[in-house]
What we know:
Elements: E1 21-24, E2 29-32, E3 35-36, H1 37-43, H2 46-55, H3 61-73, H4 79-87, H5 94-104, H6 117-142, H7 156-165, H8 171-183, H9 191-201, H10 206-217, H11 225-236, H12 242-251, H13 269-285, H14 289-305, H15 311-321, H16 329-351
Antiparallel strand pairs: 1-2, 2-3
Helix pairs in contact: 2-16, 3-6, 4-5, 4-6, 5-6, 5-10, 6-7, 6-16, 7-8, 8-13, 8-15, 8-16, 9-10, 9-16, 10-16, 11-15, 13-14, 13-15
Amino acid sequence: MSNEGVARGLAGIVVAQSRMSFIDGEKGELIYRGYDIHELTKKATFEDVVHLLWYGEAPTKAQSQQLREALAAEAQLPVEVVEILRSGARRATPMEALRTAVSALAYSDSNKDDDGRDATLRRALRIQAKIPFIVTAFHRLRTWSEPLRPDPSLSIAGNFLLTLTGKRPDKVAERVLDRCLILHADHGFNASTFTARVVMSTRSDLYSAITAAIGSLKGPLHGGANTAVMKMLQEIGDASRAEAAIDKLLGAGERIMGFGHRVYKGDDPRATWLRKMSAELGESTGNKTWFALSERIESIVKQRKGLNCNVDFYSASVYHYLGIPGDLFTPIFAISRTAGWVGHAIEQIIDAALIRPRAEYVGPRGLTWPGA
């Protein structure tokens, strides 16, 4: 095999067919199972999108309510998982805690050897329901507070904010986070999704697939960019200092996090919504600093580098406005992307092909082992 036949990082290689999502990087288009992301963000809830991705169709009102009730019934964390979180509360990072806790959910699954589609969907319900409260329980434990019980009347987004802060969120905050979850739910064969599919292709279980996907998402080149964006915003502090700060970073050859995308050549449609939500929260909180600073940086980077912002850039200020600590931004990504990971896991079960790409060997040949 020659170097001309090697696609580094599998760039441009089609490895499977999928009905989950479609991305047109030139047009800035993102579709989940036939529905444009703008349509979903306007009209659907995150729970509706979970149903769409798992079952392949938009839910009826009855199906939507049934799914919400089923998720609420599975939300409580097993005692052993809480104790695992407690034991690492002041040593682990949130993504390390999430990765470990999701793996530990398998302990209390009495039907773990059934790898069929229906059993996988039952596990999916448990995992999707519990992941938000793994994140909030860990945060409360590390801040010397006890985990809170979710309110069955609230959405996943609303309950995340409730069990994180101890305060019932207003409708604006709940809907903003709900939309964030919709926007992050699926995005083709990204690194974490492909990881989940590789694990499922071996006929392993969903706990293993989601745990592996979380490990992939933990990497700063995939899931951690918005945390870096918020750190940059806090270091600059004000829109009046943005130009000098960005020019200094660019002059030093630093990468400005939250800009550019491997797929989108124009606007990232998810960033369009996040920009609007950052502005909305700036208005509703009476603190426009973070939106104004973000808007100014976006303009400067566009002028200097010709780059558009991506999903990570404005999500940083949105989450900050919602009172969410920076190191929980990536775990929120995992809460949302679990919906997509599960949908892809189910597709992989149906596909039933072991994913086994080849590598081009470029090492030495014909060596003689040193004397005995």
